[in-house]
């Protein structure tokens, strides 16, 4: 079967959305640094709600990018980590993050030029 993310019915499209959406990309990026518990991850991904983080983790786990390790302790301990596919995805995402961060002066200048035309 050939996949084409530009085709509306292709199953690769939702996976791309899970990875490249705001919370998905930040979650994968944060887990690139190593396994985290839910609340650690929530603190690392500043601004994400508990509900959105839970939904994001479920989607990424379903797509095979995140591994959920629930340990039978009292209180229960759940750690999240990247799978091999998740690590590969995170490395490519990290390159994009580095590019965006390093080119922000140019982006800010472009935004300023654009906004001044509208004023």
Task: Give a written overview of the molecule.
This protein is mainly α and 119 residues long. It has a single domain, classed as Arc Repressor Mutant, subunit A, CATH 1.10.10.10. The protein has six helices and three strands. It has a three-stranded antiparallel β-sheet. The longest helix has 19 residues, at 84-102. The chain is globular. The mean pLDDT is 95. It holds the Pfam family HxlR. This is Helix-turn-helix transcriptional regulator. InterPro entries: HTH_HxlR, WH-like_DNA-bd_sf, WH_DNA-bd_sf. GO terms for molecular function: DNA binding. Keywords: DNA-binding, Transcription, Transcription regulation.
CATH superfamily: Winged helix-like DNA-binding domain superfamily/Winged helix DNA-binding domain
Distance between the termini: 51 Å
Shape: globular
Number of strands: 3
At CATH level 3, the topology is Arc Repressor Mutant, subunit A
Q: Using the coordinates above, name the CATH class.
A: Mainly Alpha
Strand order of the largest sheet: 1-3-2
Structural class: mainly alpha
Q: What sequence of helices (H) and strands (E) makes up the elements? A: HHEHHEEHH
Number of domain units: 1
Keywords: DNA-binding, Transcription, Transcription regulation
GO molecular function: DNA binding
Domain HTH hxlR-type: 10-108
Organism: Lentzea tibetensis
Structure keywords:
single chain; 119 residues; mainly alpha; Arc Repressor Mutant, subunit A; 3-stranded antiparallel beta sheet; 6 helices; globular; transcription regulation; DNA binding
